[in-house]
């Protein structure tokens, strides 16, 4: 149990670590168009992202999948830029009534697909921690649950800030979405430009 809790803490710290903020940026980009009143839609998104990264985290950690870590480190900020860019097509809920469900479905598959890529990034870190450890089931489970707890906290913070600004302060929802998405996209583009692997292939 102590091993499980140790890896749970490591998983939590990994996704909430401000030094490795790429995963935080993606979760923020994914949730930018929502506030606390949209919690049902956010549950769908979080579930999709969880399914995606849980699958590749397990497969890669167990040795069934192997992808160049440098490629993954480049792909992760690309997923952030794409997600943030899609946010710029957001329209206020009042003007998108009939297309609302289609938008949710699209973001669901986006979260699932990009979750697969982020799971490979998580696995690189976890495998470095495990080393030659024989039993990896408990560490894998603990680490994944730690990731989820950290992820939920990030989501809650983003949704709460959005709720306060949009529902209470009455900032235009579209303005909030566009401003935050622009900041996220800019930070992700910086990660892409400074990526060492990219510089070797250009």
TrEMBL record:
The chain crosses the membrane at residues 20-37, 42-65, 71-88, 108-129, 149-169, 176-193. It holds the Pfam family HupE_UreJ_2. This is HupE/UreJ family protein. It comes from Dyadobacter luteus. The keyword Ribonucleoprotein does not apply. Keywords: Membrane, Transmembrane, Transmembrane helix. The keyword Electron transport does not apply. InterPro entries: Put_HupE_UreJ. The lineage of its organism: Bacteria, Pseudomonadati, Bacteroidota, Cytophagia, Cytophagales.
């Amino acid at each position: 149990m102590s091993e499980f809790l140790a890896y749970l803490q490591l998983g939590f710290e990994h996704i909430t670590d401000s030094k490795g903020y790429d995963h935080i940026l993606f979760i923020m980009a994914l949730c930018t168009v929502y506030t606390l009143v949209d919690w049902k839609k956010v549950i769908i998104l979080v579930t999709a992202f969880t399914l995606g990264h849980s699958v590749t985290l397990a497969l890669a950690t167990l040795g069934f999948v192997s992808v160049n870590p440098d490629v993954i480190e480049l792909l992760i900020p690309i997923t952030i830029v794409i997600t943030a860019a899609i946010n710029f097509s957001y329209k206020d809920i009042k003007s998108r009534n009939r297309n609302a469900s289609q938008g949710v479905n699209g973001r669901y598959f986006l979260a699932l697909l990009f979750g697969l890529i982020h799971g490979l990034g998580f696995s690189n870190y976890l495998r470095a921690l495990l080393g030659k450890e024989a039993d990896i089931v408990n560490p894998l489970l603990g680490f994944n649950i730690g990731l989820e707890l950290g992820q939920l906290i990030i989501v809650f913070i983003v949704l709460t800030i959005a709720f306060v600004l949009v529902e209470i302060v009455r900032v235009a929802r579209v303005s909030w979405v566009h401003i935050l998405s622009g900041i996220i996209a800019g930070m992700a583009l910086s990660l892409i430009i400074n990526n060492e692997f990219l510089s070797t292939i250009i």
